[in-house]
Write a structure and sequence with these properties.
Strand content: under 5%
Largest sheet: none
Helix content: over 70%
Oligomer: single chain
Number of domains: 1
Order of helices and strands: HHHHHHHHHHHHH
Number of strands: 0
Radius of gyration: 20 Å
Shape: globular
């Protein structure tokens, strides 16, 4: 009988998944702070993508370097597996972030938060279609609905309740969300063939360099570089290294749906961290209600079915 790893221990999984979402939540205010320090305007999509591409390239390099040292392994990947890395990068890094920045520039804040937060819902649904263990049930459906409702509340309570749809705005965000949800399922599949640390690192490098080259050719620039804003970029790179690597390992050893549903926490934590760092959108009853609904959704999706001892004894 194979001994379970710490990444399969229920308590450890909860702690690691929540901490990972907390890290991602802190990215929202730190990215905004980074834009201000580098003088990147909200309409300058090319520079925003260059900022993201630089962040992910640095993060990928750190993952490969530190991962190799910790595991005492050369970061080699068989040539036959590189297609997996490229496919994952096109969905997780390039597809998700390019379409996200393009869409956010043409969508309302509320719609952006709601659609971005629904990536967890997409993961649960796609996983349910692919994996028998993740098959959608009434309990899982109710859990994802509660989680999405939590995102809806925290988004609308921000004061902007204008709802609408345009392909250039909400349409692009939906593509980004689908890319993110599908990427989580692909990580589950590909991490069975490639070391999840190297998978994460190389896909970041490939996607980051591609984004940086693309955005630079379209006028993206990072001006006013100084030690202060370099630290912000390094923090975001380390954040991505820790968060995505941990998430990839958790997906390797656990159900994609049960891990993916924790993603509902990211926008909620984002609001809370923005309150602390940027002193904006103070947490209130809406934020608390959102957090409660998201937690209820996570519990429902992760709740194991009760085992019928009598049936087991009869089979024995």
């Amino acid at each position: 009988m194979n001994k379970k790893t710490i990444f399969e221990n229920r308590i450890a999984v909860i702690i690691l998944a929540v901490l990972t979402c907390l890290l991602w939540g802190s990215a929202f205010p730190m990215i905004k702070t980074g834009y201000l320090s580098y003088g990147i305007a909200s309409s300058d999509i090319a520079s925003q993508i260059l900022f993201a591409g630089t962040r992910f390239t640095i993060s990928g390099m750190l993952i490969i370097l530190i991962g190799s040292l910790i595991q005492k392994k050369k970061p080699k990947v068989p040539k036959s597996n590189w297609s997996m890395i490229i496919k994952l990068s096109m969905f997780q890094t390039v597809g998700q972030y390019v379409f996200f920045y393009m869409g956010l520039a043409n969508a309302t804040g509320s719609n952006g938060a709601i659609i971005d937060g629904s990536a967890a819902l997409v993961t649960v649904v796609i996983a349910g279609l692919i994996y028998k263990e993740d098959k959608m049930t009434f309990r899982k459906s109710l859990g994802t609905i509660l989680g999405f409702l939590g995102i809806f509340i925290v988004a609308v309570s921000g004061g902007n309740s204008e709802f609408g749809f345009s392909m250039a705005g909400e349409g692009m965000l939906l593509i980004a969300t689908f890319s993110c949800g599908l990427a989580s399922v692909l990580i589950k599949v590909y991490s069975q063939h490639i070391n999840p640390i190297f998978l994460c690192g190389y896909q970041f490098i490939f996607g980051g360099v591609l984004m940086a080259i693309f955005s630079y050719n379209f006028g993206g620039r990072l001006d006013g570089i100084n030690p202060g804003n370099v630290y912000i970029l390094i923090y975001l790179a380390i954040l991505s290294m820790l968060a995505y690597t941990t998430w990839s390992i958790l997906l390797k050893y656990n159900s994609a749906a049960k891990i993916g549903v924790y993603g509902f926490l990211v926008p909620v934590f984002g609001v809370m961290m923005s309150t602390i760092i940027l002193k904006e959108n103070p947490a209130n009853i809406y934020t608390l209600s959102s957090l409660i609904l998201v937690c209820m959704g996570i519990i429902l999706v992760n709740r194991d079915k009760k085992i019928n001892i009598n049936k087991m004894s009869k089979r024995a």
